[in-house]
C-alpha cells in the first residue's frame, strides 16, 4: 500500500509517524529492545504528547534475526499465526554493546543499531561486515489512512543492482522489482497479478531473505513507493519480520524452510504421468477405460488416473458420494483400474453446497463457518448456497477427514485439494481467529487436514495431494500445481514464471496442467507443453472443456508423450535424489538458474529456463516453429538427448522439433539413469547407467530407495579429463553401466 504522494508529500488524509531517535535500549544476553521517539527530543517537553515505537530484535534460529515494530501493544491477539519451528541447538544469539553501538549476532547474521546518527538498523554479514540491507531513516513507521485504519510500515534498503524474488506463486515478471504486490489469496487464474499461493517471503540476489510474520494481508511496494526501498505494511499495531542469512540463495532457503517447515517426500509413483477426466467433459467408466486402454495401446505408461469434479452429483459439491447415474459401481471400477497398476486421485474442495446432504449435517454439528449473527455463511458462487467447512474446529477437521476416509477405503490414493482461496472476512471462526488473518491461512488448515489423513491411512512417504492454494508453511504438504491457465504459449510461459517464483518461496515440488486448462490447445502448444510438463517434478494431463489424451492432438503428440514419459522414468534415480534433497534441505527440484549460479549476473533474471535438480538444464520451447533462445553458463555442457557437447558462457538460438528441446547435463556432473522406463517406482539400482559429463573428476552419486534412504552410492573418479573412469560402489551390489558423455 502506498502512503506518500511522491517523495515529499503524504497522500490526502494520510498521517505518518517515523522512528527518529532512540531514547532507551534494554539489552539481554540474546536480544535487545529499543524505544524510538517519532520526533527529535530537544527538552523534556518534547517527551509529551507523542508516540514511541518499540523495536524488538531477537533471534528465533541460527542465522535468522527477527525484528518487531510496535506502536500500541494492547491490541488483543486473535491469531492465527504461522507455525514456526524451533531451531535445533538454539539460535546461538549474542548481544554486544560498545559505545553508541548495540549488535545482535546470530551465526552469519548481525543486526547493528548505532544511536549516534539517524535512526536505522543495519543487517550485516557477520564474517565480512558487508551490509546486506538496512532499515533507514523512514524505514520504521506507523500510518493512519482516511478510513481510520492503522498501518505498521517497514522499509528495507535495496542495493544497486539488487533483484527481489518470491512472494509465492506469482505470474507477473519473475524479478519483483517495480511491482506492487498484495499477499491476499484469490482465484484469479495465471494471467493476472492475483495469486493462489501468497507467501510473505522474498529472496534477494544479495544473499538474504525476509519473512513477514503475518498471515493476513501484507502490502508490498518493491521499489515503487520509494524506488530505493522495499516496503511492506500491515493493517495492525505491530509488524514482525525475520531476516534470513545466506550467503547463497540455497542457504537462505535451507534456513527459511527449517523455520517454516520442509516438504514431505512424495511417493515415487507420484512422479509418473497423471491423466484426468478433465473438468466439464462428459465421462463415465466406459470413457475412463477407453482412455486407459488408449494409453496402453499407444505404449504410453500411465501411473495415476484422476477423477475431476463431476464424479459427484451436480449441485452437490461436496458430498463425497459418487454420482450413481454415471458410476453405478465405483468400488468395482476402482478395483478394475487398480488391477491395471494405476493409482487413483479424486477431486475435492472445502465447500459444502446447500443441496449436499452434508450441509444439514455440518450445520447441525456446528462445522460450517458462521456469520457474526450465528447464521451459516453462504453464497451462490461456484455452488448454490455454498458454505465453508470451519477447519479451525478440531471436530470439523475430524468430520471432514472422516468423509474422505470412506474414499480411501475404496482404494483412492490421493486427493486434488482444489480451491481454498475465496474465504470471506465477514465471518466468525470456531477458534476465535481474526477473519482477516484467516483469509490466507485457511488453505494451510485445509491442506494439512487432508495430507495428515493420507499420512495416517497410507503411511509415511505415501501421502501426496494436488493442491492449488497455499501460504507460508504450505510447502510441507506437496504437491502444488499452478492453477487455471489458458491453452497458449503465453500461458505456458506464465506458468513457468509462477513455478519458479514459488520455488524461491520454499516450495520443493510443483506441477501444471499440460496443454493448459482453459480452452483447447493447438497441437503445437500441446506438444511443446508435453516436453515441459514431463520435465517438471510432477506431470499431469488436464483440461477444462476438452480431453487431454495425446491422440486428440495427432500421432506426433502420441510420440512426444511416449518419448518424454519414458525419459522421465529413466531419470527417476536422479529425480528422486533431487526430491530427497528438497525434503531434507528445502532446495526445490525445479529451480531458477540463480539458485545454482548465483554469481553469474545473467542467471539472475532468467525465467524461461530452469535447472531440474542440480545437474540438468531445461529450456522449454514456447513457439510453434521451434525457435528458442536460452543461456548456458560457463563450461562444457552436454545435450542429454544427443550427447553433443556445447561450450557455455553464452546465449544460444536454436530450432527444435516437437520431440526435442534444449536439455543439457551440467559440466562435471554424473547423472544416474534407471534401466526401467515403464514405471517411475521400479528398482533404480538394477542396471543403473552412470552418465559421466566432461569435467567430472571425483563425484559421489547416491541413488535413493523409495523411502528416501540411500540404496547405493557410486563414487566416480577420473584423474585427468581424458583418463579412465573408475567407480567405487557402496550399498546394493547390482550391475551398473558407465557412459561417458
Features:
741 residues; alpha+beta; six-stranded antiparallel beta sheet; 11 helices; 45 strands; globular
Topology (SSEs and partners):
Layout (H helix, E strand, L loop, with lengths): L3 E2 L3 E2 L4 E4 L2 E7 L4 E6 L14 E10 L2 E7 L22 E6 L2 E6 L2 E6 L6 E5 L5 E5 L4 E5 L5 E8 L6 E5 L11 E4 L14 E7 L3 E5 L5 E5 L6 E6 L3 E8 L3 H12 L12 E4 L8 H13 L6 E4 L22 H10 L3 E6 L2 E2 L4 H9 L21 E2 L5 H17 L3 E4 L17 H24 L21 E2 L7 H15 L6 E2 L1 E2 L8 H11 L5 E3 L13 H16 L1 H14 L4 E2 L1 H4 L13 E3 L3 E3 L8 E6 L3 E4 L5 E3 L2 E6 L7 E3 L4 E4 L14 E5 L5 E7 L5 E8 L8 E6 L4 E5 L1
Parallel strand pairs: 22-23, 22-31, 23-24, 24-27, 28-29, 30-31, 41-45
Antiparallel strand pairs: 1-2, 3-13, 4-5, 5-6, 6-7, 7-21, 8-9, 9-10, 10-11, 11-12, 13-14, 14-20, 15-17, 16-19, 17-18, 18-21, 19-20, 25-26, 32-33, 33-34, 34-39, 35-38, 36-37, 36-39, 40-41, 42-43, 43-44
